[in-house]
Amino acid sequence: MALSRKKHGHQLAETIPHIIFFICGMMAVGFVLCISIYLIISGIPAIRQIGFVKFISGTKWASTAAEPSFGILPFILTSIYGTAGAMLLGVPIGLLTAVYLSKAAPRKIAFIVSQAVQLLAGIPSVVYGLVGMIVLVPAIAHTFHLSSGATLLAAILVLAIMILPSIINVSLTALDAVPKEYEEASLALGATETETYFHVSVPAAKSGIAAAIVLGVGRAIGEAMAIIMVSGNVANMPGLLKSVRFMTTAIASEMSYAAVGSLQRNALFSIGLVLFLFIMILNIFLNVVIKGKGGDSDEA
After folding, report:
1. Residues 210, 286: contact at Cβ < 8 Å?
2. pLDDT score of 299 more than 60
3. Helices and strands per DSSP (H, E), number in the chain
4. Which residues have a Cβ under 8 Å from the Cβ of 272 and sit 6 or more positions away?
5. What distance separates the 2 farthest-apart alpha carbons in the chain?
6. What is the 3-state secondary structure (H, E, C) of 150-179?
7. Mind listing the pLDDT tens digit for each residue in 148-159?
8. Considering the entire predicted model, what is its pTM?
9. Is 176 within 8 Å of 208 (Cβ atoms)?
10. Is 233 exposed, middle or buried (0-12, 13-18, 19+ CB in 10 A)?
11. Under 8 Å CB-to-CB from 109, ≥6 apart: which residues?
């Protein structure tokens, strides 16, 4: 009798956490579904009224003009170029920093740099934008002899700095989890420490590094407050030294005064829908390409 009660108690102790985890997981799925449904319901009417091709491929955005235009191609291209530029700068720096902290740095230096990275992660977006507006924007204007340094280049540099904590922290955790036996075996076969780090440790941690890149992309493409302060917020076709507007900043800059039920407001929801779909497709692509290659190499 006592054994059966004890066994029943163990089963109950195992069942309750599983139920809690299941409920939490379903809540997360439910939130995503609710957001998706809301964006679809709010964004589809404007796309129907404007025309899908005209909305996506139009190059002019003038939502408050007497004859309004709602072309978001400049916003889409700016978001793509800005995110790609930030990743080209941020990923190599972040990955190399993580490799150094995990494998080569003395403990004291690794501790100091890690604390600095943690501090970067805790700085609000508006502070990044403020510093960029005060320091970076005037520097770009002076260097390239521009009337205003609020450009795509400034946005790329700010985004590259903002994504560093995510890439470094997640990559560092993945590299620290690589079994020491892998590295010891590589060194025993005659490989140098540098070769071991980049040919053994990094490939073994590829799945975690891929997750870091996905997080970095999400942070870059979803940022609004810092970017609106350094990009100029002008609906131009993208150019490295031109003032531009991202999809996120287009929504943030006009939503406050767009009339409820107006075509302008519905078009802003449509931009949100396009941004949501773009992020989903990009995340799926990165997971399939980067993690897929990592899985193939692990099986090999």
Report:
1. yes
2. no
3. 15, 2
4. 39, 42, 43, 251
5. 87
6. CCHHHHHHHHHHHHHHHHHHHHHHHHHCCC
7. 899 999 999 999
8. 0.86
9. no
10. middle
11. none
Are 231 and 253 within 8 A, CB to CB? no
Question: pLDDT of 39-48, one tens digit each?
Answer: 889 889 999 9
Residue 82 and residue 151: Cα distance in Å, rounded?
10
**Distance (Å) of CA 128 to CA 15, 46, 64, 145, 147:** 46, 34, 30, 24, 22
- Compute the distance between CA of residue 95 and CA of residue 210 in angstroms, rounded to an integer: 11
Cα–Cα distance for residue pair 266/152, rounded to 1 Å: 27
Distance, in Å, from the CA atom of 295 to the CA atom of 300, rounded to the nearest integer, reads 9
Collapsed DSSP state (helix, strand, coil) of residue 256: coil
Taken as a whole, the chain contains a residue count of: 300
49 φ, ψ to 5°?
A: -70, -40
CA distance 27 to 218: 21
d(CA 36, CA 254): 21
Query: Looking at residues 130-151, what average pLDDT do you find?
Result: 93
Strand-pair category, 69-70 with 61-62: antiparallel
Residue 9 has pLDDT above 70, yes or no: no
Region for residue 197 given its phi and psi (left: phi exceeds 0; alpha: psi -120 to 50; beta: otherwise): alpha
Could you give the CA distance from residue 36 to residue 264 in angstroms, rounded to a whole number? 20
**Are 83 and 231 contacting, i.e. CB atoms less than 8 angstroms apart?**
no
CB 78 within 8 A of CB 245: yes
- Is residue 245 a contact partner of residue 27, using CB atoms and an 8 Å limit? no
Cα separation, 11 vs 17, in Å, equals 11
Amino acid identity, position 145: H
